[in-house]
Amino acid sequence: MVSDDMTAQMRGWFTGRLPQGWFTGPPQVTRDREEIAIVGTLPEPPAGVEEVERGALIDGLIGRFREETRERRIEIAKEAEHKFRQKVSWGVACGGETVMFTTLSVPVMTRLRQSERQVLDTLVAAGVARSRSDALAWCVRLVGRNTDTWLGELRDALQHVDRVRSAGPDVNA
User: Fold this and answer.
1) 79 membership: H or E segment, kind and range
2) What's the pLDDT tens digit per position in 95-107?
3) CA 152 vs CA 6, 122, 136, 146: distances in Å
4) What is the C-alpha separation between 56 and 109, in angstroms, rounded?
């Protein structure tokens, strides 16, 4: 479990380090053991734009931001990676859509019983996934999307445990 204090420190650092005007407010900072994900919100498209045009406009705004900020994002990421010793990923939110520009794919080892492997093999055979690895990632995304509330409550509980644990005595002393 990662500490809230470190995430808050990172959020403050990125908010202070990012150029004015990139985002409409402070960026969202999400982290785990391997990666820091920075997602900033771009200004909303103008009201009154038809739905077909709105989708293309959002794609254009995101694409322009990605290209125009690439060099600065790389510089800031290198600085952050040196400071926090974790890789940095970038994304933006605009018009209800979130797009990640860069993310890590981290290998994870697991042991599955035959019935569980058959689920993955069915997804591969049906063309939902190219491999067992892709099928497992698909399953994780599906569970995450359908259990956001439950996972959010679980994360909140783990953060509470982390705060209580850090307030307790130092067992290494």
Assistant:
1) helix 51-84
2) 888 999 988 888 8
3) 19, 30, 21, 12
4) 39
| 89: phi then psi, degrees, rounded to nearest 5 | -115, 150
CA distance 77 to 49: 35
Tell me the two tokens of residue 11.
Answer: 């959020």
Residue with structure tokens 């994304």? 91
Element containing residue 144 per DSSP (H, E): helix 132-146
Rounded to whole angstroms, what are the CA distances from 144 to 61, 136, 137?
Answer: 28, 12, 10
Taking each continuous run of H as one helix and of E as one strand, the counts in the chain are 5, 4
Residue 127 has φ and ψ, to the nearest 5°, of 80, 10
Tell me the pTM: 0.69
* pLDDT tens-digit series, residues 62-85: 999 999 999 999 999 999 999 999
